[in-house]
Structures are given as structure tokens and as C-alpha cells.
Amino acid sequence: MVPPSSGWGIPRQGAEGDYMKQLIYNIGQLATPQGSAAHCGPDQADIKYYKDAWIAVADDGTIAAVGEGEVPEEYRHADSSIDAGGRLVTPGLVDAHTHLIFGGWREHELALKLKGVAYLDILAQGGGILSTVRNTRAASEEELADKAAEALDMMLEMGTTTCEAKSGYGLSTEHELKQLRAIKSLQGRHPVELVPTFLGAHAVPEEYKENREEYIRILCEEMIPRVAEEGLAEFCDVFCETGVFTADESRTILEAGRKYGLAPKIHADEINPIGGTELTAEIGAVSAEHLIVATDEGIEAMHRGGTVACCLPATSFYLNASFARARDMVNAGVPVAIATDFNPGSCPNLSLQFAMNLGCYKYRLTPEEVLTAVTLNAAAAIKRADSIGSIEPGKKADLVIWKADNLDFILYRFGNNLAGTVIKAGDIVVSR
Ligand code: NIG
Ligand code: FE
Predict the structure, then answer these.
(1) Best of 239, 241, 245, 250 to mutate for ligand 1, by most ligand atoms within 8 A of CB?
(2) Is 315 in the pocket of ligand 1 (CB under 6 A)?
(3) What spacing in Å lies between the alpha carbon of 347 and ligand 2's midpoint?
(4) Ligand 2 centre and the CA of 423: distance in Å?
(5) 357 C-alpha to center of ligand 2: Å?
(6) How far is the CA of 348 from the centre of ligand 1 (A)?
(7) Is residue 307 within 8 Å of 282, Cβ to Cβ?
(8) Distance CA 380, CA 333 (A)
(9) Which member of 5, 144, 408, 420 has the greatest number of CB atoms within 10 A?
(10) Ligand 1 within 6 A of 345 CB?
(11) Contact (CB, 8 A) for 417 and 157
(12) Which of 91, 68, 190, 206 is nearest to 137 (CA)?
């Protein structure tokens, strides 16, 4: 495609509206889901393709127009322009499930894993999540934020432009608030947009091991009100699992969260099926996460509740566990999202591209279904489907120009970072 001939490099004159902030042209293939709500069933594969495309970005960083062929006169005048080199462009990737904020790492657990010690046994012995709790409590808010910023740099390089971030390694009012404040401090400091989730119910801390009811009381009556009062989280999440929180306890905690305006999410059916997914319709869960061993009843509950199934295939990979029945979920009309679950224990991986590969190879989803899973459906899982997750007028210009010519290529290659130029709200934030 021939670059637009007029307006380039000429300083703005006249009214603001005459100029675009950015024009991306010479896009060989543009692939995007469309709409402002999660896509389910056959619609999960409904990707709109444009050939020889362009995107005009308005001053406020939102998409003004998208089209094929010649750029119309009204969109030709832009402060800057990007030649996409005939390559693939998709929406920026949305990572809808991460445990971004933590102290230390847990590489010593690898040897235990290789000896066959189970994830929940490590936790029961005071390791696992509880060892990260000790490291997180020992760290300052600034240290936690700086460490997370390093992870966010890597995510951005790999095409992630929005990321949900959970607390859950503080497990006391002071340290949960510290984690959430660290997340808040990164907003505006880092280009990746963060969506905060309160996960005080990630484990019962050692000091309440013999008095879990008291910890649940503190969660519901102290932590949740403080988190809401300070506006530190949008969602409340619970790890519903054997030896962690039961389905009844999860209901109590999520209802308390809802009372304070925190929308419910639930870690359900990761290791043992103890009824977490079955709760989703009743508690109005926005998303249910993991779902490795979800039952038919659980899938039916998500369908009834309009819950997004947030599947985390890199965790299955790392735990050497089975893979969630994402194919059955799509077929049952449940919108499926795919996220990394980045955390120091069950998934020390932050590449959403790797999770996408596994979505194809292990869930047997098509490249189109996977693209929806990491863009529009992931955006719906964090209640952002009206502003991100697709390339359409009015949405934020969060985009990836790939080192690839078509969508199939990025699912076919694996183990490499294929993101080229990453654009956040119309600005180039990564160029490689
Ligand atoms: O999503 N399942 C619970 N939480 C994390 C693991 C956290 C950890 O091991 O530190 C997960 O897998
Ligand atoms: Fe998780």
C-alpha cells in the first residue's frame, strides 16, 4: 500500500479534529473479534479479517476508524504514522488472571516437584503459597512494585497491554493493603494497565490455622470493607480448594465482597472438584478460573450465570496436570478466556503467547477461538469489554504488530516472542 501522500510531517494547523494522533497503515492482515461483550459458542470463532488495512487513532488514544485499502482523506493527517510492513495486527493481549505482586520466588520447589511431591502437600507443610506470604510480608510496597514492574516490562514486550493483578500473599489487613497499594502505584507508572483483585482468601495464614473462622471473619468484616473504602480493588476472588476454602466459605466471602461492590471471581476446580464452579450462577461470578476438573454441572452453572471460563493452560502444563475442558465449554456456550496465572508457585510463566499455543495444542481451540480468548473474552472477564479487546472505533488503540503475516502463524510457532511493535492507547511502547 502507498503511504498517504498529504498531511505527513506537517505540523498541526487548524482545529484539533483535523488531525489524528496516529495512523497505522500497510497492515497485511488485521484480525479482531468484534463487539462489547464476551463471545460464546460458534461466535467465539467469529474473527473479522481485514486485508491491506489501516487504523486511525484519535487524540484521546481511542480508535477513530479502521478500514481496508486507501486511507480516506479525513484520516490521512496524523501527528505520526507507523508502517506495519504488511504484517499481522491484533488487539493488545489481555491477561485476565495473574498473581503479579509477590516477594521472592520458589525455585527450590522444582526439586520437590520432580520428586513427586504434590502442590497441595507442599502447601500443607507450610510451603507453597505460605512461603511466598513470608517473603511478601517482608517486602516493602516499593520493593513489591519494583519487582512487579520488571514482570510487566516482560509482559509488554510479549504483547500484553492489560493485566489483572491479584493480592493474596499478604493474608493480613496490613499486607493485603500493601500489595493492593503496590498495584495502584504502578498505574500510570507503567504502560500496562492493571485491574486489581482482592484475593485475601488465597490461603488460611499459619497464625489462623487452628481458627479459620476468625480469619474468614477478618476477611469479611475488616479487609473487604477497608479494600472497598480505599478503592483498591474491583474484584474479590477466593481459592476454593481442598485444604484452602470450602464452597460454603467461598460463598460467604464472595457475598461479603459483593456487598461492598467487589465483583466475584473464583479459583475453582484447579485440583479437586469441591463445588466451586457449581457456585458461579448463584453468586453471579464474573469469571471462574482454572476449571481443570470442572464437572458438567459446573459448566452448566457457568452457562446459566453468564460467567466467563478463564482457563489457565500453562498452569496445567507446569503442574503436569490435565487440561481444562475448554472445547466442551465453548461447545456448551460458555465464553472461554485464556490467561497466564503468572505466580511464583503453580505457574512462573508470564507469556500469554505460550498460553495461547497451549490453548491450541491442548484445548484444541482454533486460532480464532484462542484470539477471542485472550482479547475480547479476557476483557469481559475483567469487565473491560466495552473499552478494550477488539479493534473497533471507540475502543482503546491497544495493538500488537506481529512478526508474522497471519494469525495462524503465531499459534503455529511457539517458544519465541513474535510480538514486534506494541502500541498502547495509540503510542508505541515496544519496538523490536
Ligand atoms: O492460581 N491456585 C491458587 N493460586 C495460584 C497459585 C499460587 C501459588 O502457588 O503461589 C494459582 O495457581
Ligand atoms: Fe491463580
Answers:
(1) 239
(2) yes
(3) 9
(4) 27
(5) 19
(6) 10
(7) no
(8) 15
(9) 144
(10) yes
(11) yes
(12) 206
DSSP 83-111: E-TT-EEEEPEEE--B----SS--TTHHH
CA-proximal residue: ligand 1, atom 5 (nearest): 346
Sign of the C-alpha dihedral computed for residues 298, 304, 305 and 310 taken in this order:
positive
Backbone angles phi, psi at 152, to 5 degrees: -65, -35
Does ligand 1 have an atom closer than 6 angstroms to the CB of 267? yes
Q: Which domains does the chain have, with CATH numbers?
A: 20-91+390-431 (2.30.40.10), 94-381 (3.20.20.140)
Q: Give the torsion through C-alpha atoms of 29, 35, 36, 40, to 10 deg.
A: -100
Interatomic CA distance for residues 341 and 347, integer angstroms: 6
- Could you read off the pLDDT of 332-374 as tens digits, one per residue? 999 999 999 999 999 999 999 999 999 999 999 999 999 999 9
* Cα separation values, 359 from 1, 94, 136, 373, Å: 34, 15, 31, 9
For residue 344, give the ligand 1 atom closest to its CA. 10
Chain position carrying cell 478500514 = 67
Cβ of 75 closer than 6 Å to ligand 1, yes or no, is no
Cell of 329: 465449554
Other Cβ atoms within 10 Å of 16 Cβ, number: 8
Write out the three cell numbers for 186. Answer: 504502578
What DSSP element (H or E) covers 420? strand 419-424
Pairing of strands 419-424, 427-431: antiparallel
In this structure, which ligand is nearest to the CA of 130? 1
Which element (helix H / strand E) includes 171?
A: none
| C-alpha–C-alpha distance, residues 290 and 265, integer Å | 11
On whether the pTM is more than 0.85, the answer is: yes
Q: Is the pLDDT of residue 213 over 80?
A: yes
103-112 confidence digits (pLDDT tens): 999 999 999 9
Q: Are 18 and 58 in contact (CB under 8 A)?
A: no
Structural contact between residues 379 and 73, judged by C-beta atoms closer than 8 angstroms: no
